[in-house]
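Office hours follow-up: a student asked to see two folded examples consecutively, so here they are.
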Amino acid sequence: MYDDELEILKTALDTLTDGPSGLPRLDGGHDWERIRRVLVDTARRMHDNYPYHHPLYAGQMLKPPHPVARLAYALSLWVNPNNHALDGGRASSAMEKSVVKRLAAMYGWQDCLGHLTGGGTMANLEALWVAGRLHPGKTILASEQAHYTHARISEVLGLAFEPVATTADGRMDLTALDRRLAAGDVGTVVATMGTTGLGAVDPLPGILELAERHGTRVHADAAYGGYFGLCATLTAEPRAAFDRMAGVESIVVDPHKHGLQPYGCGSVLFRDPAVGRFYKHGSPYTYFSSTELHLGEISLECSRPGAAAVALWATLELLPLDAGGEFSRMLDACLEAARDMHASLAGSPHFAPVHDPELDIVVYAAVRDSFSEASAAARRIFESAADRDLHLALIELPATMAGTALPDAEADAESLTCLRSVLMKPEHANSIPEIVRILHDCADDVAGSP
């Protein structure tokens, strides 16, 4: 399986080393036999992992990188560029600027400021840092189902943070948001374009309308869902939300989630390039080789792997971000998988889906007579499925949100533990029958066990 990749990598490395240098050849003096032994031992230790690449892994948000991304990342390590300053990564810095423009164009932005980051947490930190600089002392709002890092980042930055209630489907409650905005002292509202728990998309058109009325900024945390705007098969409400992405002030999207990239590769984009003034700093020993913009001049991070930019650039050369193109069809396959799984479980005597999937996450409860029994059954099915090489996730939801899936069950607990499947591999589209079969076998075993 790796022969083709290794042959391609060798060809690319030959091309890389054939570049003109005019420098004397260096002998590294490495003990290759010792290196071989250590690397083989490393490979053995890596056996202690879940099969993240396989469609029977449907647990956390772990998507294997595309071969072109994996190979380009490896190729770049022979140079090991640092995209902080241009003299640390000239070629890879140019690639980073190119991919940032392509990401921004996906949202209808032509001239913006942005760069790659180590992931969504750092990207959101930068977005909220700029929010705090623009509106010092004002509160950050995000929904109760937003990623937990927003509250933590706000604390790190010394910004006030408040959660906004959600509706039963896990999306920000516009009535609650309007009421909080009317009370004043809010600087930025975070709209989550795909919650990591439920895959719910906040109602961005309504959020933008309320933000404009109350004089508030909007930041879109699209770390997980940011690519789905390219899809042809989104339902009406998420479609309307993604169509309004150009109206926000900043966007975070993680190419290492749905963008087929190795970890870590996130990104932050700002609609107004003028926010770059907040990053301004001096570094006479770093920014001396070029009068062009150094990426370290618009980033809170200093050293950053140029390899991430190289891998993403190569991927976008192979799979452009075109609606209806090969890449977007991969995302549509993930949506199809989620809908097929939801439909299969909706008629099951063992499981009850919590809500219709908006993206590619399906959350479902075990059917029992009470919430506490359903939670216990979900945990046992989770373990039984892992024994059959089907790897899922668990999620704890408020009973007010998940209880609608079990309308006849006794509400004897304030929360409900549900099973959660993230179907973010295109291969999941053809694997749903097998996944559902295993789930039913596990449910039968759990029901029959003492």
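And the second, which I mentioned at the end of office hours:
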Amino acid sequence: MNRRDFIAASTTLAAAPHLFAAARAEKRVRAGLIGCGWYGKCDLLRLMQVANTEVVSLCDVDKKMLAGAAETVAARAKTDKKPRTYVDYKEMLKEKDLDVVLIATPDHWHALPMIAAVEAGADVYVQKPISVDVMEGHAMLEAARKHKRVVQVGTQRRSTPHLIDAREKVAKPGLLGKIGYAEVYCYYHMRNNATPQVSKPPEYFDYDAWTGPAPLRPYDPPPYGGPNGDPLPHRGWWRAFMEYGNGIVGDMCIHMLDMVRWMFDLGWPMKVSSAGGILVQKGARSNISDTQTATFDFPQFPVTWTHRTWGSSADPEYPWGATIYGDKGTLKLSVHKWEFFPPGQAKPKLSGTPLFEYDKYPEDKTEKDLEQHVESAIRAHVLDLLKARETRSKPVADIEQGFISTASCILANLSMRLGRSLTWDAAKHVIVNDDEANKLLKRPYRTGYTHPAG
């Protein structure tokens, strides 16, 4: 780290003390993970880096993935003792021996385990989006408050060091002047366009339990190089279907929308409108949109969203990010950098890049499938959760903030589906004068599962 980087890092530390509440939380944390795939392990291993963590239990309906996660945790902890493993999260939570539960399942399985975890007395780190319908999210918020549990949502842009730097140096001092408009966008070609054959699930994977409250689709995932080359829906295929989530709006818009909300203290949008659909990639089995725009009308200024899973990015340097327009300048933000441009200037006046901590955490260089530019943010995010646990306060990405950002994205999808704008009553959690739309705030669960909103 050179002198300039040291000064920049010190400025960020001073401006955002929640990021580094402690170099390492030494009080032992008994943790459990539900959903042992890619990001579940990323979150858990970051917790192990910054806290005295005893990983007590792991849960997944894929027995091979579960066993592999247990081996990874034991190796990282440098012990022969592996965590207890479960295929049913209810059995895991029945023990009531966990301080923190991390939930990194596919989106359709966020609500029920999170509510069960707070009922079991645990604090929770739950991945975004928190739910697949609005009433699920509201039930999660009510459960957290009822049981007085701390719930952090995995919208870690709020704990990203270089974005906090932008907030402190540009947004808070008012360098943008009067903000009139903000854009959030994603141009990644991330829509799966496969048309695989229906097959049988491998014996080690409980597809019925994985489907849970969602509609039971034919088992048709393409092979992703899973164990024995077996097709596995939880290796990303599920993101191609609205049955399990909310498409690219629910996956990618929520991060950038939540970042803008946090950076400029935005609450609920008053109105949401959206249009788009499957306009280009019509031959695929995927039923999520390949093209979509949305407008979120906040009292302060409107925020628009655009995604395309085809064609080229509007700005090759910012294929996924946010651009904030003020009368005194423009601020561009992404997970890779930020830049502030005064009016009429082609070169940024201020800028920043991600914090890498290889000196402290050399394993970041070699960990499989790791997004290295994001790891400092996840560490800060789990540290913020631990600090909130100690003080019994709200974390930076409290469940209420996660609910607002998640529900806003769901409303965008409902607007596109219905073909009209939706006016939101934030006090009553209803869409104004639209009975048809309000019926879609809670989607039906599959037989055998009970929706948490009743």
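Two things to take away from it. The chain has twelve helices and 16 strands. The longest helix spans residues 399-418.
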